[in-house]
């Protein structure tokens, strides 16, 4: 595992998450910031929504005004600078449209230099919606063509392109269908492939497939796994790694985080990047 620890006094790479808050701290921008910190990256946020959430589910959420989401992106990009950015919960068409415009204005994604990871969060693992159903078109039409990488899970694949993956052999068909929507790279996550002995995610750039193999850890506590993976990839991109190496790093990172997950509350506990904090550095 690469160190990624910046030298003392040196400004670390800067990463931005455009995401919702999880009051339980397991997913959302809390997971993103925790992962950024554990990957030696300065984390910044554009908050899109505040969820009322714990280990058993999401009981509601309030959206931020779309112009405030856009203003947060502009504020950090024009002063601090952004080496890589990611999205999580975006909630609505209005917010997605504002995010696309703001990213366009500050050079995040598209043909611009700043890598842009789009995690198309649609629902929590308990099935609670985190995106209005009429916002799927905006996700597909406004954000995917700007993305360096999109990282759907299998439920999101079904919603976005209507492909139902029930076996590992279906992952490549899903990757092809999502790639048609315009992102540079697609990573199909296999965590929801019930019954599969391994978790082999598939990366695709329109011509070549790269398999990301990994064992399936026998645990119920996988809350925040998708956020942690996308944030670890974003961190590696902020450090300047190329896309394939960054995704390999993210896969190793999330596997370790799943192995170190812990129970919390009455429901599903979070994956944990805290193993990256080494006590002997204090
Ligand atoms: N039980 C598990 N053991 C090992 N890796 C897992 C497990 N569950 C999910 N993963 C990995 O965690 C990442 C997130 O996957 P997934 O659960 O499909 O996404 P999401 O959290 O967005 O629903 C993927 O790299 C996936 O392979
Ligand atoms: C505020 C918020 N954002 C995203 C999620 C979903 O996170 P994810 O990493 O996909 O994890 P699970 O929902 O699968 O645990 C969320 N729950 N809340």
TrEMBL record:
Keywords: ATP-binding, Kinase, Nucleotide-binding, Thiamine biosynthesis, Transferase. It catalyses: 4-amino-2-methyl-5-(phosphooxymethyl)pyrimidine + ATP = 4-amino-2-methyl-5-(diphosphooxymethyl)pyrimidine + ADP; 4-amino-5-hydroxymethyl-2-methylpyrimidine + ATP = 4-amino-2-methyl-5-(phosphooxymethyl)pyrimidine + ADP + H(+). GO terms for cellular component: cytosol. Pathway: Cofactor biosynthesis; thiamine diphosphate biosynthesis; 4-amino-2-methyl-5-diphosphomethylpyrimidine from 5-amino-1-(5-phospho-D-ribosyl)imidazole: step 3/3. GO terms for molecular function: ATP binding; hydroxymethylpyrimidine kinase activity; phosphomethylpyrimidine kinase activity. The keyword Nucleotide-binding applies. Signal peptide: none annotated. One of its GO terms (biological process) is thiamine biosynthetic process. NCBIfam families: HMP-P_kinase. Catalyzes the phosphorylation of hydroxymethylpyrimidine phosphate (HMP-P) to HMP-PP, and of HMP to HMP-P. This is Hydroxymethylpyrimidine/phosphomethylpyrimidine kinase. It comes from Gandjariella thermophila.
């Amino acid at each position: 595992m690469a160190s990624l620890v910046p030298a003392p006094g040196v400004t670390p790479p800067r990463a931005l998450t455009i995401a919702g808050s999880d009051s339980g701290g397991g997913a959302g921008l809390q997971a993103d910031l925790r992962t950024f910190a554990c990957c030696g990256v300065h984390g910044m946020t554009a908050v899109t929504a505040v969820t009322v959430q714990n280990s058993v589910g999401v009981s509601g959420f309030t959206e931020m005004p779309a112009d405030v989401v856009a203003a947060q992106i502009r504020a950090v990009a024009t002063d601090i600078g952004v080496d890589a950015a990611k999205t999580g919960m975006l909630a609505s068409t209005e917010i997605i449209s504002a995010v696309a415009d703001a990213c366009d204005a500050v050079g995040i994604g598209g043909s611009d230099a700043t890598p842009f990871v789009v995690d198309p969060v649609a629902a929590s693992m308990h099935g609670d919606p985190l995106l209005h159903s009429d916002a799927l078109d905006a996700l597909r039409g406004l954000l995917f063509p700007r993305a360096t990488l999109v990282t759907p899970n299998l439920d999101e694949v079904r919603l976005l392109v209507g492909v139902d993956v029930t076996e590992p052999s279906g992952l490549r068909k899903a990757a092809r269908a999502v790639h048609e929507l315009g992102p540079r790279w697609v990573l199909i996550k296999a965590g929801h492939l019930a019954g599969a002995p391994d978790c082999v995610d598939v990366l695709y750039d329109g011509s070549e497939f790269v398999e990301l193999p990994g064992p399936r850890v026998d645990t119920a506590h996988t809350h925040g796994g998708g956020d942690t993976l996308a944030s670890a990839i974003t961190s590696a991109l902020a450090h300047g790694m190329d896309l394939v190496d960054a995704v390999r790093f993210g896969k190793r990172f999330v596997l370790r985080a799943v192995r170190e997950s812990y129970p919390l509350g009455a429901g599903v506990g979070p994956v944990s990047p805290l193993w990256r904090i080494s006590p002997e550095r204090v």
